[in-house]
């Protein structure tokens, strides 16, 4: 496995190694990332994983400075998972001058997590486009855990005609149902014990929808109230059309319930797809 | 020469034909475009020319509906110039749904022509990125006649890491100095006779700068006043740093004087690079 931090070296190294499958990450890898790498392994001849904590997608007061950086351990896990190349650019390599061109995503980027993290998805779209242009992969794998991000990247690739196939990876969960996330490491033991409630509430919404319940607002409110009653600060619990991420309407068949809520200082997100009738 | 209007067919056709040199146009081709095609011919094994009148870059009240469309004659000229592929997508092919993702250029896109055509360079940047993603050329040729456009595209490619070399083509002029432009066809005979004054005024500024004159504002004002005195409505005459397009400062060595002005209903632009000491 090669570890490369220069764009020019990466491009040179990738010549003739197509098809390339790409997994962009911010490092601090867990089993969820590794599942994406294994999925990439099945897609491409050469698997490239990037590790880059992207300043563009962090807002003021967010955890950019404290975001866990564990490069050595990450590389050990990536080697075991069969990655071929780890791309670890510096901030200077990706932003030799302040980034002036941005990819401006549509209004959906201002809803859900975007309503609580202004500019976040602009930063995500911009860095992902840069990385896709650098790696030029045949396919790129993004986890469903960041469902809104996956949606926005799919739309960006379609609308900007980026020549890449976007592949979705299933969310990996701890035994108690908590979706794996680098930010789980911020949780105290008591918060960690409480954390699976988010997924349980989303599962209740999913079960109700799949049982035919159509009062979506009532389901969202009930889940949010339960979380708030157990000490969470709820950003949103929202049922959406899985294809458009617009608010779910009776008659939609493929839905997704998404949630974001904070336990202490840690913001957790999760989602579950639901099949309505 | 092949004429292709479907993205999928173009991509399939281009397989194995690298290096590709690309010339994006809006059609109604003149000798200036043909010079870019000949320049591309010297760069790539396969020369692709696109013809697409991009609605994103026209403002309300501009000449989108009336912009001259002369596909048959364009193809005849392109064949003679040695183009291999003409890409003529429909609006539906490039925008199957309303374009929601836009490339947002930096503040310089709101100056010069951008101050008179709000959103123009966002539309240019977005369509050029789409076309570059579709054609995936090794190099793309843009004329210096649209100097601000060339500047913005160079910056976009650099900042978004688009894997393409941008090549600049020299402006082609009529014998009387008028820069060739599709919009020259809008001019009445009397306007056509008057039109070279724009270039003559820019040349006077250039000569003065190269002779050591450093009162740039006086030079700009004098040129604008002369044009206004001959019936032009002047949008701007502006001396800029050629590398940054920021206002020229004494001590800058590579400058460019840019002008935009209207004769009747026709808006003409032009520019000349100057070497100061």
UniProtKB/TrEMBL annotation, chains A, B:
Q: Where does ATP bind?
A: 26-33, 143-146, 172, 180-183
Metabolic or biological pathway, per its Swiss-Prot or TrEMBL entry:
Cofactor biosynthesis; (R)-pantothenate biosynthesis; (R)-pantothenate from (R)-pantoate and beta-alanine: step 1/1
Has UniProt tagged this entry with the keyword Cytoplasm? yes
EC code(s) of this entry? 6.3.2.1
Q: Which UniProt keywords apply?
A: ATP-binding, Cytoplasm, Ligase, Nucleotide-binding, Pantothenate biosynthesis
| Record carries keyword Nucleotide-binding | yes
Q: Which reaction does it catalyse?
A: (R)-pantoate + beta-alanine + ATP = (R)-pantothenate + AMP + diphosphate + H(+)
Binding of beta-alanine, residues? 57
Q: Record's Gene Ontology CC terms?
A: cytosol
Instruction: Tell me the leader sequence span.
Output: none
The cross-references to CDD domains, in alphabetical order and at most eight, read: PanC
Compartments annotated for it: namely: Cytoplasm
Gene Ontology annotations of biological process type: pantothenate biosynthetic process
Alphabetized GO MF terms = ATP binding; pantoate-beta-alanine ligase activity
Which sites bind (R)-pantoate? 57, 149
Give the positions the UniProt entry annotates as the active site.
Answer: 33
Q: What else is known?
A: The reaction proceeds by a bi uni uni bi ping pong mechanism.
Q: What is the recorded function of this protein according to its Swiss-Prot or TrEMBL entry?
A: Catalyzes the condensation of pantoate with beta-alanine in an ATP-dependent reaction via a pantoyl-adenylate intermediate.
Matches recorded under NCBIfam families: cyt_tran_rel, panC
What do we know about how this protein assembles, alone or with others? Homodimer.
Per the record, the similarity remark reads: Belongs to the pantothenate synthetase family.
Which named protein is this? Pantothenate synthetase
């Amino acid at each position: 496995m090669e570890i490369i931090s220069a764009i020019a070296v990466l491009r040179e190294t990738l010549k003739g190694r197509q098809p390339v499958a790409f997994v962009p990450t911010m490092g601090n890898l867990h089993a969820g990332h590794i599942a994406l790498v294994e999925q990439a392994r099945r897609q491409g001849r050469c698997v490239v994983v990037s590790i880059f904590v992207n300043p563009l997608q962090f807002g003021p007061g967010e955890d950019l400075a404290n975001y866990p950086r564990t490069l050595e351990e990450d590389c050990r896990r990536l080697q075991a998972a069969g990655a071929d190349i780890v791309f670890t650019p510096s901030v200077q390599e990706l932003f030799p001058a302040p980034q002036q061109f941005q990819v401006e995503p549509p209004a959906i980027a201002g809803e859900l997590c975007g309503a609580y993290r202004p500019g976040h998805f602009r930063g995500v779209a911009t860095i992902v486009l840069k990385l896709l242009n650098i790696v030029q992969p045949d396919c790129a794998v993004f986890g469903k855990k960041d469902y809104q991000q996956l949606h926005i990247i799919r739309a960006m690739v379609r609308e900007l005609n980026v020549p890449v196939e976007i592949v979705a990876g299933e969310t990996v969960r701890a035994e108690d149902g908590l979706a794996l996330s680098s930010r789980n490491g911020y949780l105290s033991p008591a918060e960690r014990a409480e954390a699976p409630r988010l997924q349980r509430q989303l599962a209740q919404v999913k079960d109700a929808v799949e049982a035919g319940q159509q009062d979506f607002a009532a389901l969202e409110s009930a889940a949010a109230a339960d979380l708030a009653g157990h000490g969470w600060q709820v950003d949103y619990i929202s049922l959406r059309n899985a294809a458009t991420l617009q608010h779910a309407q009776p008659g939609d068949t493929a839905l997704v319930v998404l949630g974001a809520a904070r336990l202490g200082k840690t913001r957790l997100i999760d989602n579950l797809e639901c099949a309505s009738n």
